Amino acid sequence: MKVAVLISGRGSNLQALIDACQDKAFPAEIVLVLSNKADAQGLDRAVKAGIPTATLNPKNFENRASFDAQMSKTIREAGANFICLAGYMRLLSDDFVRTWRDKLINIHPSLLPLFKGLHVHEQTLESGVRFTGCTVHFVRPAMDEGPILAQAVVPVLPNDTPDTLAERILEQEHRLYPLSLKIIAEERVRISSERVIIDGYQPSQGSLINPAG
Ligand code: GRF
Questions:
Q1: What is the mean pLDDT of residues 72-95?
Q2: For residue 91, which phi and psi values (nearest 5 degrees)?
Q3: Which of 40, 70, 128, 173 pairs with 52 at a CA distance of 20 to 30 A?
């Protein structure tokens, strides 16, 4: 599977994907890192790994549709047949999402469908939930919606700030995203009635309670 990764900034999830793909046995290859910001740190990570990069500046396009059409073109020209959003902070047009339907995934730092959109960690802390986490999902036109592929759970601790919580979740994001890409590339994933079915899935035993006792 040939993958394009779309970024807007730091690119730590991109790095996790790059690291995973460096293993010869990993069934996917990143053929393009595409950014809508010229100063995205993730672009440097791609260059260091010898991966082709492209930057498209929205200001050079008349509207979202023409920008997204150019993105699709650039992605195709790079030979990619699958897209991972990794901190890509621009809304996607319905057309783009339709074009790449079931070939486009995103990672979000909450247990969706809770806490969509921006300021996710603030929303999480304000809600008082004991657990949160991250979600990898197939992208649909509505923001942070679409069939859920994988989730990881992390506890919310009493003294958490948005930053400490983000850091704890990010650690799991970096495990979850490569794992998600792997099972898709192994062709073990299909979508039926907007639910994801994973072949060979082994449910783990037990459950967590927080706080303990
Ligand atoms: C991550 O928390 C991801 O879940 C969200 O944006 C952040 C991107 O971080 N979509 P990075 O650029 O991958 O470091």
A1: 98
A2: -65, 145
A3: 173
